[in-house]
Design brief:
The chain is mainly beta. It has 3 helices and 14 strands.
Amino acid sequence: MKKMVLTFIYLSLVCLCSCQNDLIEYRHEDIKLSIEKGEAWLHDFPLFLGIKFKNPPQIAIWVESIQGEYLSTIYVSHKIATQSWEGNDNNRRKEALPHWCYSRGIQHNDGLYLPTKDKPLIDGISGATPKGSFDVKIHPINNVTRFVVKIEVNHSTDFNEFYNKSAKANDENYSGGKQGSGQPALVYAVDIDLSRDLTFYEAELIGHSSPDGSSGSISEDLSNITTARNIVKNIIIKIL
């Protein structure tokens, strides 16, 4: 299994926003992962004095074995990768992408499974989330033919009637306070089998992450999720 981990560490990756997609060069057997933005892709994030900023979501894309073992991160948005949050009152945002964080399994001195400012993710993996739809190119090597690609998506301050900013710590609906997530991160997954004669896959929404980021678990209960369902329209994977 360690050999599989090393395999995915050396994946080649290119991530570009939709206006630059034509610049990506693909080779035979490359994997093209396309995230199409939904109606709620850009979210009003409050800054100060009533001023709001249109924020794209936080996103992590990673690979696991069929058995659920974390292999490698393909892409993660810059803010969580470098802890460069704005106006967060020193909140490290453990509730932002907790399923990815716990899947990585790297715990820091403060007890959180998050990158830190002094130990950020490398630039080749992290980047600012594009304002619109974008592609990620994956070029697997060696003999790994079956694996799971997961995508976790989240907005800050994405409150609704159930996940509201007045929720208190330890409440079922608490998601980090007034600068937290609001609606929890959503997790999509797709099982890729390169040994089959398939060239098209679509990731499915499998649940939401821990609202307060206290675990890496996934809940299949989406009954209290509203606008967050519309952050992503679809996620398509093509084997070229």
